[in-house]
């Protein structure tokens, strides 16, 4: 039931390409000339201090936020005010939020089938089959008929991942998926994400889970004050960061 | 002193039953229409359009501020003075009462719904948008059901107030429950029996609403503890 994800291939265009993106909330300039390229099948981890613009950056990729200048191209589609482009990009991009954002009035299964029905226009039986397949994949099929409020945080986050996967996206965005969880539940969510990475999913994750970053990231990006300060392979960035700000951040993270 | 047989025949007689039916039909119509428009007003109150927000604010200010009796009399007596359209046969006491009460009810319901829409977290809309749902789908499938759950007790309260407020239409001689009761008293001078019978009708209607409320609340509260 679960389709295989596109494997990395030099011929394919980049999954996500940001060039000189600027974003302001009113007069407050949040992102300064951010450029980032994510190839098909790559896993990019974004870290940085609170308020540095990590969430804003990944929310621009599926246009939950609008950018004022620069270009954002997702699977060859450039984001603009054109709503058909936005629809197109959102079909290709799944997102997992810090606070899950499950729909509390719907069961787990309904959470997973709703958008399949209304956006993908899949028939109910097909949507249910797909939902059950992904719920099994996040190892939680037995909760299909429960409501989100009856699940633990870790279980809710796994449902949120399954809900996004049901739309068969090529790219997954994660915004601190484990930071609202009790420590004992972090692992079950990270394991699910590692599994996705192993299957070749293109992923952009905002997270401070260094172990996860070392294990799966093809690149780690460090942000501060709305700028990308440096990026590199996890071992390089964590082992021998070249900027003072990165060093300070990593020191604080370890304490 | 209290003629029990008269009370029973008042209670089970046609006139009061018809009056109660009219009260019920008027209330349901007013509630239905103002719920629809209240939703539109309530969601528009959160729009980015300043002019729209101002218009809704002014509307709520006017129709919440003015006494219901005044609006009722204004619609019934004032409108015909403005235009001959309102002197035509279709402009009945029933229609005038419907119009006046709907104007008022919209103001109250849009306030209740506005705050209920606000109470549904921003994360819900973002979760839906990230899945590719359009704004109207998000409104109907995600925001509205959750907002209705939040607003339900207040909406039922409003309906009960409305049910009783229809009795004001007695001043424009709409033949609702209270008007019929007063007609009957004017000819029989039996206050206790007729007031008693009318009270039973009101209490029965309100009780039905209360039972319905708990049913609806239970249905809508699935998943919430
Ligand atoms: N809707 C908004 N309106 C105004 N300012 C905002 C808004 N959202 C975020 N900001 C500001 O933009 C800056 C970047 O916010 P953002 O949420 O992207 O940071 P972050 O790196 O994700 O931080 P955290 O680690 O705390 O989640 C912050 O200073 C924040 O206060
Ligand atoms: Mg954030």
From TrEMBL, chain A:
Record GO terms (molecular function): ABC-type amino acid transporter activity; ATP binding; ATP hydrolysis activity
Entry's family note: Belongs to the ABC transporter superfamily.
Transmembrane segments: none
Domain of life: Bacteria
Name the UniProt record assigns to this protein: Amino acid ABC transporter ATP-binding protein
Sorted UniProt keywords: ATP-binding, Nucleotide-binding, Transport
Pfam families: ABC_tran
Domain ABC transporter, first and last residues per copy: 16-250
The organism of origin for this protein: Phyllobacterium salinisoli
Automatic annotation (TrEMBL), chain B:
ABC transmembrane type-1 domain location: 20-213
SUPFAM superfamilies per the UniProt record, alphabetical: MetI-like
A GO biological process held by the record: amino acid transport
Gene Ontology CC, one term: ATP-binding cassette (ABC) transporter complex
Transmembrane feature ranges: 20-42, 54-76, 88-109, 194-212
Keyword line: Amino-acid transport, Cell membrane, Membrane, Transmembrane, Transmembrane helix, Transport
UniProt subcellular location: Cell inner membrane; Cell membrane
One Gene Ontology term of the molecular function aspect: transmembrane transporter activity
Membrane topology qualifier: Multi-pass membrane protein
A Pfam family reported for this protein in Swiss-Prot or TrEMBL: BPD_transp_1
InterPro entries the UniProt entry points to: AA_ABC_transptr_permease_3TM, ArtM/GltK/GlnP/TcyL/YhdX-like, MetI-like, MetI-like_sf
Gene3D superfamilies associated with the record: MetI-like (1.10.3720.10)
Family annotation (NCBIfam families): HEQRo_perm_3TM (TIGR01726)
Membership in a protein family: Belongs to the binding-protein-dependent transport system permease family. HisMQ subfamily.
Name listed for the protein in its UniProt record: Amino acid ABC transporter permease
Species whose genome carries this gene: Phyllobacterium salinisoli
């Amino acid at each position: 039931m679960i389709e295989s994800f596109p494997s990395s291939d030099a011929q394919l265009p980049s999954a996500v390409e940001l060039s000189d993106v600027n974003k302001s909330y009113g007069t407050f300039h949040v992102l300064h000339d951010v450029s980032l390229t994510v190839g098909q099948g790559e896993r990019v981890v974004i870290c940085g201090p609170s308020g540095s613009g990590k969430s804003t950056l990944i929310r621009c990729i599926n246009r939950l936020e609008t950018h004022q200048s620069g270009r954002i191209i997702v699977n060859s589609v450039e984001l603009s005010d054109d709503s058909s482009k936005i629809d197109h990009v959102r079909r290709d991009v799944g997102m997992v939020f810090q606070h899950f954002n499950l729909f509390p009035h719907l069961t787990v299964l309904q959470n997973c089938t709703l958008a399949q029905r209304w956006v993908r226009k899949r028939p109910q039986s097909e949507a249910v089959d797909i939902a059950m397949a992904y719920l099994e994949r996040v190892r939680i099929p037995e909760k299909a008929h429960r409501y989100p409020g009856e699940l633990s945080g870790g279980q809710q986050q796994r449902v949120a991942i399954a809900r996004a996967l049901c739309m068969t996206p090529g790219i997954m965005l994660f915004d601190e998926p484990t930071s609202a969880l009790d420590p004992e539940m972090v692992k079950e969510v990270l394991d699910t994400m590692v599994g996705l990475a192993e299957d070749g999913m293109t992923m952009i994750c905002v997270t401070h889970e260094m172990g996860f970053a070392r294990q799966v990231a093809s690149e780690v990006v460090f942000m501060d004050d709305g700028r990308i300060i440096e990026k590199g392979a996890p071992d390089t960035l964590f082992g021998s960061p070249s900027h003072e700000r990165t060093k300070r951040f990593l020191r604080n993270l370890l304490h | 002193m209290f003629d029990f047989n008269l009370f029973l025949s008042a209670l089970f007689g046609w006139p009061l039953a018809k009056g109660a039916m009219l009260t019920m039909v008027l209330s349901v119509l007013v509630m239905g229409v103002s719920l629809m428009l209240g939703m539109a007003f309530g969601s528009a109150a959160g729009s980015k359009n300043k002019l729209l927000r101002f218009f809704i604010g002014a509307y709520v200010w006017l129709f919440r501020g003015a006494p219901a009796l005044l609006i009722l009399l204004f619609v019934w007596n004032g409108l015909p003075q403005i235009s001959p359209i309102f002197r035509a046969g279709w402009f009945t006491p029933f229609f005038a009462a419907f119009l006046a009460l709907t104007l008022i009810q919209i103001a109250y319901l849009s306030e209740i719904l506005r705050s209920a829409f606000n109470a549904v977290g921003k994360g819900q809309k973002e979760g839906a948008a990230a899945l590719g749902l359009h704004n109207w789908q998000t409104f109907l499938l995600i925001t509205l059901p959750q907002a209705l759950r939040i607003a339900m007790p207040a909406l039922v309260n409003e309906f009960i107030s409305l049910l009783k407020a229809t009795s004001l239409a007695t001043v424009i001689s709409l033949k609702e429950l209270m008007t019929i009761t007063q007609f009957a008293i004017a000819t029989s001078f039996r206050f206790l029996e007729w007031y008693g019978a009318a009270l039973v009708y009101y209490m029965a209607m309100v009780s039905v609403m209360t039972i319905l409320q708990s049913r609806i609340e239970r249905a809508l509260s699935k998943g919430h503890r």
